[in-house]
Specification:
It is a single chain. This protein has a 3-stranded antiparallel sheet with strand order 1-3-2. It is mainly alpha-helical and 120 residues long. It has a domain of 62 residues: Orthogonal Bundle (Arc Repressor Mutant, subunit A). The chain is elongated, with a radius of gyration of 18 Å. Helix 1 packs across helix 2.
């Protein structure tokens, strides 16, 4: 089972992988040193952690994702609605639009999404 939770630093690490995959693990070490100021051992520790969760893989020193960024974000969104609004998308939209009014373009986009999700 995939564990979709990532802390803030793990999310930044995941973004590096998603932006550059597939890549040699040595390249990941260099990118993490440059962008996160990490040592090689830290990169491999975090890589093992996210691989164990089923989000990424390191096969023959090539790092790639098992879950795309879009899949991850979709799951995070679904989990937020589930945890915060009892799984009710209408409750989420009602809360969201209470303080932020939707533009005409946003309303049109939402109608389009609804029509596409009907699957007729």
């Amino acid at each position: 089972m995939i564990e979709y939770k990532l802390g803030e630093i793990e999310k930044r690490f995941a973004d590096i992988i998603w932006d550059n995959e597939p890549m040699p693990s040595s390249e990941l070490v260099k990118l993490c040193a440059d962008r996160l100021n990490w040592k090689k051992s830290t990169t491999y520790t975090i890589l093992r952690r996210v691989c164990k969760r089923g989000l990424f893989q390191n096969n023959n020193s090539i790092v790639s994702s098992l879950v795309s960024r879009n899949e991850y974000l979709a799951h995070q969104s679904e989990q937020f609605v589930e945890d915060t609004f009892e799984g009710s998308l209408p409750k989420f939209i009602a809360a969201f639009t209470k303080s932020k009014k939707l533009s005409e373009n946003e309303i049109k986009e939402l109608y389009k999404i609804i029509e596409e999700s009907r699957g007729d």
